[in-house]
Task: inverse folding
């Protein structure tokens, strides 16, 4: 096969796996346990989680539960190690549901393996903080297919499990940490990634599930924009839960609305109904846009 592209830059959440579904279900299970353990109203817990998440600028702040007002009131003098014991049932509920529901979309691993075997460089790009993005690549056993992971910096307090930091540490040189302010829809991000990987923007494709944040950014950067349409197919009630704990401020939400209007009519260069259709894009000499099945329109 003769590739058209040298570099594949792929989003992680809802492109390689269904982040919305696994995270919302795991979070809901943890909330159920916390309600019983703390004898606290669910709505109050949601407000407290949102406050912590906004403080750190991420909806996935590791061990945010330790910093909840309700937890500190219940266990005022507990250390982080002690809190882990006190909150064990809630943490277990989150982890057990995550273990069952965090899984790759069909065809992802086989496609990544083929791309690497054919000499295509694959890098990940995510707005998750680095420790979370890397954990999922490792947990799903797809880390070996990636040359680098570009992820946001983030504050992570010491892990309450002694020695766990080493387990979660990526190999030297694998992780490229981006400043927390470098959010998506900055085309300079992709231009910089291409430069670091030694390719021209015309030699790269970007795959992501968001028409505005992924496709729009790629188009502005001059990178071939591939929309992972399948990543938008999830239970909207789960998304509603995530909105209640989002780290986004009102200003962030207003900006997102403005961007959605700005990119309302945007068209991706290719649309995928499954990740495996990426193969026909990378290894074809098609000059026309593809439809949902990966074939020319």
Result:
């Amino acid at each position: 096969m003769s590739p058209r592209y040298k570099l594949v830059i792929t989003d992680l959440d809802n492109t390689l796996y269904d982040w919305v579904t696994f995270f919302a279900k795991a979070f809901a299970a943890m909330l159920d346990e916390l309600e019983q353990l703390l004898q606290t109203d669910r709505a109050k817990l949601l407000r407290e989680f949102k406050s912590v998440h906004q403080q750190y600028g991420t909806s996935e702040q590791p061990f945010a539960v330790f910093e909840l007002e309700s937890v500190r009131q219940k266990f005022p003098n507990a250390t982080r190690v002690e809190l882990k014991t006190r909150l064990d049932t809630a943490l277990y509920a989150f982890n057990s549901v995550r273990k069952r529901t965090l899984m790759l979309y069909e065809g992802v691993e086989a496609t990544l393996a083929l791309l690497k075997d054919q000499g295509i460089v694959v890098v990940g790009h995510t707005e998750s903080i680095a420790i979370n993005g890397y954990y999922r690549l490792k947990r799903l056993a797809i880390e070996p297919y990636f040359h680098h992971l570009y992820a946001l910096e983030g504050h992570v307090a010491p892990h309450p499990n002694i020695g766990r930091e080493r387990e979660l540490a990526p190999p030297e040189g694998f992780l490229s940490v981006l400043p927390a302010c470098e959010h998506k829809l900055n085309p300079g991000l992709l231009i910089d990634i291409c430069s670091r990987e030694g390719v021209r923007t015309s030699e790269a494709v970007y795959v992501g599930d968001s028409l505005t944040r992924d496709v729009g950014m790629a188009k502005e950067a001059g990178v071939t924009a591939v929309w992972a349409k399948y990543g938008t197919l999830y239970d909207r009630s789960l998304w509603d839960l995530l909105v209640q704990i989002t780290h986004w401020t009102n200003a962030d939400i207003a900006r997102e609305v403005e961007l959605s209007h700005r990119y309302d009519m945007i068209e991706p260069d290719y649309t995928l109904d499954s990740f495996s259709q990426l193969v026909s894009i990378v290894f074809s000499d098609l000059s026309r846009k593809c439809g949902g099945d990966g074939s020319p329109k």
About this structure: The two ends are 22 Å apart (CA to CA). Residues 18 and 231 are 7 Å apart (CA to CA). Confidence is low (pLDDT under 50) at residues 286-293. Residues 7-18+104-282 form a domain with the Rossmann fold fold (CATH 3.40.50.1000).
